Request: fold
Amino acid sequence: MAESKGEGTGKGAARSSVLDHRFGAGPPLTVGIEEEYMLLDPGGFDLVSGVEELLAETAETEMADRLKPELMQCVLESGTRVCEDVPEAAADLRLIRQYVANHARAHNMRLGAAGTHPFSLFENQKITARDRYRALVEMLQYVARRELVFGMHVHVAVPSPQACLAVMEGVLIELPVLLALSANSPFWRGDHTGLASSRAMIFSAFPRSGLPPRFADYQDYAEAVGFMEATGAIGDYTHLWWDVRPHPRFGTIEVRVMDCQTRVEDTVALAAYVQCLVKLLLDRYANGQVLSYHRMLLSENKWLALRYGLDAPLMDLAAGKRVKMAARTLARRRIRELRPISRELGCADELARIDWILENGNGADRQRQVWNANRDICEVAEEIALAAERV
Reply:
């Protein structure tokens, strides 16, 4: 289900894909997971430009539709099949990681996964030799060249376009918690940034990123996107790089706020969280409950999450009280609501990993632990490879 940042289908086709959506074309709540992997040198664990070698070898295999290039040649994007449930997606994701790890080693590379590389410089990375990526750099210039970050996206199928927009509004309040749980990029260009997710800060420089605007209905969304396409402001709706967005061509809501996870079990846990959250919000929508929150408050909570991670003092918007609560406390409260849904959807075991993260820390916490031991940034990068390959 991968969608590259620079990919476009042409203005006419793209506009049609918004209006002629696939919401409701298949069963609701199917799941797809995308991850952006690092390709690493096996000696010093710096980034290496090796994606074309891997993709050339993959072209005639069953993995051909699951692996794609990205903007830079040191990045490999993966996407699972459309899966009926999270356990199926988890199995597919593990298969992908194992395949990539094995074939990377065969080409004298290693697989890595985190929100940023601890010390590699974007100036040293090559742009992928595809027209769409060159066009993206031409359009965004320095903003695109510095975008050496790695995310994960979760797609969940929803039954109608209007339900998708309603769920998107409900998901917004959860984005800071998801970012706090997934924060996995405390280092950037060799510096300890003091941020739990420097990826979120770096990617915020992209136009049309961050929180989506509020739409009156799907027609309002389609007309706005169509206007931007017709005027050439965007190639198609996939150039709307929001933290959560409708994906009409897939018929899904796509949650994009999270850092890529080093450990595959953390990716799976976050996917379970997102699927259960979408089910909760769909049930509320069916009962006439559609909530919306002020973007200024949501944006502030997102900043707190990327800065402090699980310790972020978030405003408790859902309770409607002027109080702050730690992100981990809000996550525990939500998990209590999601547990019955997880049993219904068959992902209770996968969701239970969230409790482990809340108790033991997120990826940023673990990177800092490695760093604090010896103050060795290369050791952090090595740990990112070792843990990412452990599937």
Observations:
- The domain at 35-379 is CATH 3.30.590.20 (Creatine Kinase; Chain A, domain 2).
- The first strand starts at residue 31 and ends at 40.
- The chain has one domain: 35-379.
